[in-house]
Amino acid sequence: MWRLLSRKARVDDGKLKVLLNFISEQEFRDVISSKKMLKYLGIIRDDGTVNYGIVIEILKQALSEEYLKQLIIKFVVDNFREDVKKAIDYFQQT
Fold first, then answer.
1. pTM, full prediction
2. Of 23, 57, 67, 71, which has the fewest beta carbons less than 10 angstroms from its beta carbon?
3. pLDDT tens-place string over residues 53-63
4. Runs of H (alpha helix) within the chain
5. CA distance 74 to 76
């Protein structure tokens, strides 16, 4: 462990798998930033672009999960209030 932490030994996939067994999911999340987590999950690609297919699947999941749906609605209202108003006005006019 000391050799790994002091960068004296290389961390390959096998060693990483063993090490991950010693920490909780919360400890893992604390170590990895949100942006790194999004990259790891494939939501943000290596070039920084968003994988829209995965984002749409997450939004589709909200159709069957009330708590997730409420989180998304709250986020949209809190962060895109004016955009939502404009979109509603636009669609009411068409």
1. 0.56
2. 67
3. 999 999 999 99
4. 2-5, 13-20, 25-31, 34-40, 52-61, 66-93
5. 5
